[in-house]
Design goal:
single chain; alpha+beta; Glutamine Phosphoribosylpyrophosphate, subunit 1, domain 1; Rossmann fold; 6-stranded antiparallel beta sheet; 16 helices; 23 strands; 27% helix; elongated; disordered N terminus
């Protein structure tokens, strides 16, 4: 697995997936809008596969860029006649990442027809499975786990996609949410540990839809039914929806970072609204790490809920001390050395009139390498803040993730073998406070054995 981190200095989700089956819906069109809702889960490539399942070939379009760049005219999608569609947005694992071959859904032909696969996550045993298949003569066109799954399905004797998957899935180790279609049905599949989220919804006129997050359902007017269980295979077809358990003895280890940072605030995970959880994280942070200050400010956009909770609990005014430039795009423009030294940031700027002469509590959701935090504190002090106290609504990230979240190697994490006091000094903060893991679990308010917290605790549910 290639480790890296987003230009924002944040950890990043690997992908977003979705798909549905319905007779009377413009499904390709609706899948595109679902992808817009999932755009935060991947901004390097996007794609849709749609199919009628009547002997005709499935239609696929995928490409590099945002959903709006790959599908500039959504009206064209209304004309696609189909009963099923699947969609994908992707972040790359590789360093440069902008490779068209690895964009998804991946569509292939095999002896039983066509197959399209969209995947979110990371298979830990991908390398050994790939080597085994290559020894049997398999030729790979991409680096994706989707292609690996396709080869494994093709090698099963069963004509039924459902039966082939039931044979293959127990061999997969790691984190995955797959959405597949063979032009006759759509199947949603979640790994036996439930690392990656996947939910099910229905349309009022008939038909069903699955997606990584519930915010996608709101966008297309579908009604949330339930989260798909770990190790469960959900089949959407002419008969409606039915499911089977593909993995024996499943357990729930949903990535706790979904609540802290990855998921959209309007999504619900395991019955908990993400925005409300983040606000509660902020309240608990204020109780655990109080500080004498004048104002509280959040880092846009993911930390605003936590910052408002902190301000509320601390009895301090919440102010918009940082403003985000939303139109900078994904292109990384390198500032000059002088701009860098002066702390110029093209994406964020401090509001001088708000922070000048103030002791500021700056709330962020996480700290990874520390480069972003250092930059933000410099921006704040340059704008006249007398003190900047950093408060983080999660524990220190001390370990890499092996389950589909892009993280730096352990030695590149600022919290690796460093105390909070040492971190505070490195990033020029007047103080720093991390929310303890017990308080994070308390804020989510679910049984504590339903999360993966390996990046904080070093307790990996599946050996990497």
């Amino acid at each position: 697995m290639h480790h890296g981190v987003a230009p924002t200095g944040k950890l990043r989700e690997a992908c977003g997936v979705c798909g549905g089956f319905a007779d009377d819906q413009p499904l390709a069109f609706m899948t595109c809008f679902a992808l817009y809702a999932l755009q935060h889960r991947g901004q390097e490539s996007a794609g849709i596969t749609a199919g009628p399942g009547e002997g005709r070939k499935m239609w696929t379009k995928r490409g590099l860029g945002l959903v709006s760049e790959v599908f500039p005219d959504t009206a064209d999608l209304k004309g696609i006649v189909c009963k099923m569609a699947i969609g994908h947005v992707r972040y790359p694992y590789d360093a440069d990442g902008r490779d068209f071959e690895n964009s998804q859904p991946l569509k292939l032909r095999y002896r039983h027809g066509e197959l399209a696969i969209a995947h979110n996550g990371h298979l830990l045993n991908a390398r050994e499975l790939r080597e085994e298949l290559e020894c049997q003569g398999a030729i790979f066109q991409t680096d994706t786990d989707s292609e690996l799954l396709a080869h494994m399905i093709a090698r099963q004797g069963s004509e039924s996609l459902e039966e082939a998957l039931a044979e293959v899935v127990p061999r997969l180790k790691g984190a995955f949410a797959f959405v597949l279609t063979d032009g006759h049905k759509v199947i949603g599949l979640r790994d036996g540990n439930g690392f990656r989220p996947l939910s099910l919804a229905s349309f009022t006129d008939g038909g069903y839809f699955v997606a990584s997050e519930t915010c996608a359902f709101d966008t297309i007017g579908a009604t949330y039914i339930r989260d798909i269980e770990p190790g469960e295979m959900v089949i959407l077809d002419e008969e409606g929806v039915h499911s089977r358990q593909a993995v024996e003895s499943p357990s729930t280890n949903l990535c706790i970072f979904e609540y802290i940072y990855f998921a959209r605030p309007d999504s619900n995970l395991q019955g908990r609204n993400v925005h409300l959880v983040r606000r509660e994280l902020g309240r608990r942070l204020a109780r655990e790490h109080p500080v004498e200050a004048d104002i509280v400010s959040g880092v846009p956009d993911s930390s605003i809920a936590a910052a408002s909770g902190f301000a509320e609990e601390a009895g301090l005014p919440y102010e918009m001390g940082l403003v985000k430039n939303r139109y900078i795009g994904r292109t990384f423009i390198k500032p000059t050395q002088k701009m860098r030294e002066e702390g110029v940031d093209l994406k964020l700027n401090a509001v001088k009139k708000i922070v000048e002469g103030k002791r500021v509590v700056l709330v962020d959701d996480s700290i990874v390498r520390g480069t972003t935090s250092l930059k933000l504190i410099r921006i704040m002090k340059r704008a006249g803040a007398t003190e900047v106290h950093l408060r983080i609504s999660s524990p220190p990230v001390t370990g890499s993730c092996y389950y589909g979240i892009d993280t730096p190697d352990k030695q590149d994490l600022i919290a690796h073998k460093r105390s909070p006091a040492e971190i505070s000094e490195m990033i020029s903060a007047d103080s720093i406070g991390f929310l303890s893991l017990d308080q994070v679990k308390g804020a989510v308010d679910l049984p504590e054995d339903v999360f993966c917290t390996a990046c904080f605790s070093g307790d990996y549910p599946v050996e990497p």
